[in-house]
Amino acid sequence: MHAASREALERLVETLNKGLNESAEQVGTGATTGTELFEFVDVLDRERALRVALVDSAKSADQRVSLVKELLAGKVSNSTEEIVSAAVSQNWSNSRDFRNGLVKLGRVALLRSAEGQGQLDRVQDELFRLARIVENEPQLELLLADRSASVDARRDLLAKVLYGKVTATTEALALQAIGRLRQRPVEALDSLTDEVAALEGREVARVRSAAPLGEQQQSLLADKLEKIYGRKIAVHTEVDSSLLGGAVIRVGDEVIDGSTAGKLQRLRRSLA
Question: What's the confidence (pLDDT) of residue 35?
Answer without folding.
Answer: 95
